[in-house]
Specification:
By secondary structure, the chain is α/β, with parallel strands linked by helices. The chain folds into 2 domains: 128 residues, Rossmann fold (3-Layer(aba) Sandwich); 108 residues, LytTr DNA-binding domain (OB fold (Dihydrolipoamide Acetyltransferase, E2P), Beta Barrel). Helices cover 31% and strands 33% of the residues. The protein is built from 9 helices and 15 strands. The strands form 4 sheets. A 5-stranded parallel β-sheet has the order 2-1-3-4-5, sandwiched between helices. It has a 5-stranded antiparallel β-sheet with strand order 10-9-8-12-11. A 3-stranded antiparallel β-sheet has the order 13-14-15. Helix 4 links the parallel strand 4 and strand 5. The N and C termini lie far apart (63 Å).
Length: 247
Amino acid sequence: MPRAIIIDDEPLARSLVAEYLEEHPGFSVVAECGDGFEGLKAIQQYKPDLVFLDIQMPKINGFEMLELVEDPPAVIFTTAFDEYAMKAFDIHAVDYLLKPFSPERFNQAIAKWTALYNVKGATTPPSTLLSSTELSAQQRERIVVKSGTKIVIIPVEDIQFLEAADDFVKVHTATGTWLKNRTLTHYEKLLDPKLFVRTHRSYIVNITDITRLEPYEKENHLAILRDGQRVPVSKTGYPRLKEALGL
């Protein structure tokens, strides 16, 4: 029996989805959650086949929550804001329900999921959801990471620099370092290029944290940060950094 989780900060909205889903007896609602934190825990615990997910929620939004899920299930977005429609389909959601939606429209979404599930024997590929980029304004202003069982929200202004680490990116701040399952190219496109410059194939630096530049080996340089940390600046990265610094 397919398992479903409903994640929405509005109790009435959760109740409506649950009510509509009762017309599909093949489904079992294993959890209802009021925010992204609860939703993440429930997905990890129950490993559902389908999630009904609101986007605009307190704490972390629906897109940010999906970034933290290691093996995302299929998703049907439910939201009152049509501005997210294209972004939802960009990450290959099963469907997008704009509130208020009718039972007929809900049934269409379930039919889409059923067809996908029956044909492929699986739902939306996890890599498709995890590879999503610039999905909301909030994601340009902060990075959400997992640290053990905790969720840490890092404002972009707190980032000193980003460092490539195999399939991850190390996010360096004055208070610690966190790993994010992303690429430097992702953040190069996402972050404000006036503040964050790719100085090296493995580094992006926050120029507001730079105190000086020093020559280093041939035509390379080092960016010295306020706390003394050194970020490599390659031959190709140096002109970009100089331009951003107004030198």
